């Protein structure tokens, strides 16, 4: 299996564009295809330059790789980046060996074209940018069966971050009389760092043993 060189910023840019409207590398759930790419990207890319990769990278990092379904080879099938199309487009730019006069530039036509492009860009800049949001199933584990779960949940919900909305929750048994808090949250991808949220939750050291991202899906 051959994957692109993700140490190259140009390739990372293509992956960033690929993940703009996708939560995972292949299909609609985390799989071994995500693991294959994650193993190639050994550290989190710069969040300001690659926000979509950063969101995906941190989500996959939090999962149990061995439990994910699928085949790593699916990553190569999904990440083609239309290189063939780009190559074909490059071929179209080759010099016309027949020297057609149709390639002569009309200055007036070019001026009008440039004005229209400028007007289009101005209109496009005025349009509000769509807010990218994700629904996250967030889990918080207590220290033991004597931990006050209600107090733990109250502490978790007291955490405020711009772009974070706490939703429905429930306590899920994990064994030996211990239950974990499972809570649904909605986050604005560009505003909320899941790493920072987990750090904030971990500060509730009297109640919280650990936290985890069980699932994440874009709205």
UniProtKB/TrEMBL annotation:
Domain Translation elongation factor EF1B beta/delta subunit guanine nucleotide exchange: 133-219
All copies of domain Elongation factor 1 beta central acidic region eukaryote, residue ranges: 97-124
SUPFAM superfamilies reported for this sequence: eEF-1beta-like, GST C-terminal domain-like
GO MF term set: guanyl-nucleotide exchange factor activity; translation elongation factor activity
Coiled coil spans: 187-214
Keyword Cell membrane on entry: no
Biased composition range(s): Acidic residues: 89-107
CDD domains: EF1B (cd00292)
Keywords: Coiled coil, Elongation factor, Protein biosynthesis
Alphabetical list of Pfam families matching this protein: Arc1p_N_like, EF-1_beta_acid, EF1_GNE
Region (Disordered): 85-108
Gene Ontology CC: one annotated term: cytosol
InterPro entries from the UniProt entry: Arc1-like_N, eEF-1beta-like_sf, EF-1_beta_acid_region_euk, EF1B_bsu/dsu, EF1B_bsu/dsu_GNE, Glutathione-S-Trfase_C_sf, Transl_elong_EF1B/ribsomal_bS6, Transl_elong_EF1B_B/D_CS
Family: Belongs to the EF-1-beta/EF-1-delta family.
PANTHER family assigned to the protein according to its UniProt record, in alphabetical order: EF-HAND AND COILED-COIL DOMAIN-CONTAINING FAMILY MEMBER, ELONGATION FACTOR 1-BETA
Record-given protein name: Translation elongation factor 1 beta
Gene: EFB1
